[in-house]
C-alpha cells in the first residue's frame, strides 16, 4: 500500500517545507553541512479509527492503517508539522515510503547539496 511520490503529494510538500538548517550543535560536530529529514510518527499496536460526521449529521467511524494530525506550537518560535499515527502492521510500508520520499527530495536538492559541500571544502563550482 505504498503511496506515489510526487511534488503534489501532501507528504512531499510538508517535508520540503519542514527541512531546516543544521543546529549549532550539528555545526560544531561536523565541518560538512547536513541535510536532515524527520518523519514524526506514533506507532500503535491496536486498531486505529478515524471519525467524521456524515452529511446527515451521523458519526462515521472507519478503521484505517494510518492517519495523521497537524501539530503546531510556539516554542518560542512557531513550529508546525504533520505527525503520522500508524499501526504496527503498517510500519514496513511507512518505512519504505519515507525512505523513497527522502531519496526523492535529496535527489531534487542534489545541486544545492553539491554547492554546500563545495563551498565548505573550498572547491570551485
Automatic annotation (TrEMBL):
It comes from the Bacteria. This is Uncharacterized protein. It comes from Candidatus Nitrotoga arctica.
Amino acid at each position: 500500500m505504498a503511496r506515489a511520490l510526487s511534488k503534489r503529494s501532501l507528504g512531499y510538500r510538508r517535508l520540503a517545507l519542514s527541512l531546516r538548517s543544521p543546529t549549532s550543535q550539528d555545526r560544531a560536530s561536523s565541518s560538512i553541512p547536513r541535510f536532515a529529514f524527520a518523519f514524526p510518527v506514533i506507532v500503535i499496536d491496536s486498531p486505529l479509527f478515524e471519525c467524521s460526521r456524515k452529511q446527515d449529521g451521523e458519526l462515521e467511524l472507519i478503521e484505517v492503517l494510518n492517519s495523521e494530525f497537524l501539530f503546531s506550537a510556539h516554542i518560542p518560535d512557531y513550529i508546525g508539522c504533520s505527525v503520522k499515527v500508524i499501526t504496527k502492521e503498517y510500519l514496513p510500508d511507512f518505512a519504505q515510503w519515507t525512505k523513497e520520499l527522502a531519496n526523492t527530495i535529496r535527489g531534487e536538492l542534489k545541486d544545492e547539496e553539491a554547492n554546500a559541500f563545495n563551498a565548505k571544502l573550498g572547491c570551485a563550482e
